[in-house]
Amino acid sequence: MSSLWTRSPDPAMTPAARRIIRLNNGFQLLFNLLWWMPVFYAYQRAAGLSDGQIFGIQSIYYVAFCLFEVPTGVVADRVGARNCLRAGAVVMTAANLVPVLAPSYTGFLVHFLAIAAGRSLTSGAASACLYDGLRAEGADAHYLRAEGTARALGLAAKVVCWPLVGPLMSVAPQSPYVLSAASAAGSLGCALALPRIAAAGTGDGRGAPRWRGGALLRDMRAALRTLRSSPWLALLMVQGVAVFTLSRICQVNLFQPVLLRHGIAESTHGGVLAAMTVAEAVASARPQWLSPRLSPAAWVSLLSVLLAAALAGTTVGGPWAVVGLLCVFAAITGFGYPVQRKLINDAIPKGAPRATLLSVESIVDRGVCAVAAIAAGAYLAAGRLDALLWQSAAVTCVLIPVLHLVLHRISPRAPARGTRGTRGAGAASTAAGTRPAEEPVALPVDEGVAPHP
After folding, report:
1. Per mean pLDDT, which range of 111-125, 214-228, 380-394 is the poorest?
2. Do the beta carbons of residue 105 and residue 398 sit within 8 Å?
3. In this predicted structure, what is the pLDDT of residue 159?
4. Rounded Cα gap, residues 403 and 398, in angstroms
5. CB distance 129 to 85 below 8 Å
6. Most CB contacts within 10 A, which of 120, 224, 283, 308?
7. Pairwise CA distance, residues 333 & 303, whole Å
8. Residue 350: which of 230, 218, 215, 432 has the closest Cα?
9. Res 101: pLDDT
């Protein structure tokens, strides 16, 4: 059976497609290179914030992300994904400078609110820009590898840069935030260099409908109509919640508490985080290592259960077992992200507001994260970290199989034989068990083997 991640037989990419991929790699690497990530908790504690204030800001951040997602996704569909990337880079640059100017509760709150705005401007737009740009160049079959490679390069940069944070802070305590601002400014340069995409209504602002009153509501209604008419797409979005929420809450909010719970000294946390990042980077760059015997939708379900099991497993065993399980957890996350993103993009029908729909997916993810962050803070305050991990695993292992059965029942069936004239997205959709959203089926499915979710 054709696979979403098999090596494409298409001819070499055009120079324009290669340029889009290179600039996307640079943008994703620099935009997401937050030097302060390993030390923001300690930095805020040193500034006088309590644990309640720190976790409260995180919860507000997730809620703000949800509130910003729809308007920014609609804006991306209206003024162009490329323009949204530029705006997001400008906002992120300013956001990273706020803690330098105002190291207080208010300053950190404004900092995270601005980050929510900057990331929401790019969350759907970046994927839409890459997907539509490659499709315009006839290189859409390379999207999955490009998405995974961009993520892997960004993670590799963190492995290289994060160990330098400690020595830099000993010289200048505010250096992580200044360097983060400089990185965001570099991502702006990549966004400015992105070429126009000659596709109406997809994101370069040329050929798209002019901005008029009610445009936001019209695009939102179009997105909601798409979700109502495509329960498969809506359920794929819900399916991805487990991967995003478990990985985000573990790697950002629970990483240090889990290590401290097992007596792992803070001086080694940077090394553990680097090892996890290496594992995630390798897996992100190689989603084709997953066996084609399972469809991408089935892999996302399986990976979600494995994530929950790995997280629950950190409650038992010694320090080395915990570090190993965290690295396994990171690798599973690396496999899951590009496959889930490709599934969603292929399921979006032709003519639908892509960036808006991708923003809707982010809203679902961040909304669950907002609730999870509040719950994590309450469990930690009560000294019930193990209970939190086991209960999270139990909920995931019950809900994901049920959701997968529903996906299997409503899965659109692709024809057994496809046309040979078009390749790429169609082949991916056939392997995913979905109808191609943009083009006919590219590669034939082996006779007698039905696609399945």
Report:
1. 214-228
2. no
3. 80
4. 9
5. yes
6. 120
7. 8
8. 230
9. 92
From CA 289, how far away is CA 242, in angstroms rounded? Answer: 21
For residue 316, what are its two tokens? 């038992």
pLDDT interval class at 449 (50, 70, 90): very low
Inter-residue contact 316 to 251 (CB < 8 Å): no
pLDDT digits (tens, 9 = 90+) for 281-298: 788 777 777 777 888 788
Total-model pTM: 0.62
Task: Give the per-residue pLDDT at 217.
Answer: 67
Could you read off the pLDDT of 203-219 as tens digits, one per residue? 444 444 444 445 556 76
**Token pair listed for 21:** 């991929």
- Ranges of H-type helices in 137-268: 143-161, 165-171, 175-193, 215-229, 231-239, 241-248, 255-261
Judge whether 232 and 346 are in contact, CB under 8 Å. Answer: no
* CB-CB contact of 95 with 114 (8 Å): yes
* Res. 313: pLDDT tops 80: yes
The rounded distance, in Å, linking the Cα atoms of 128 and 197 is 11
- Which residues touch 400 (CB under 8 Å, ≥6 apart)? 239, 242, 301, 304, 305
Closest residue by Cα to residue 99 from 165, 34, 43: 43
- In whole angstroms, what is the distance from residue 245 CA to residue 366 CA? 8
* CB-count burial class (<10 Å; 0-12, 13-18, 19+) for 374: middle
List, for residues 350-396, the tens digit of each pLDDT value: 777 776 777 777 777 777 877 787 787 778 778 888 888 888 888 88
Write out the two tokens for 52.
């309640």
Distance linking the first and last C-alpha atoms of the chain: 13
State both tokens at 43: 């930095």
Q: Which residue has the higher pLDDT, 414 or 164?
A: 164
**Residue 197 CB contacts under 8 Å (≥ 6 apart), including other chains:** 81, 82, 129, 132, 133, 136, 203, 204
Q: What is the CA radius of gyration of the chain?
A: 21
Q: Mapping DSSP to helix (H, G, I), strand (E, B) and coil, where does residue 230 land?
A: coil
* Location of structure tokens 């250096």: 175
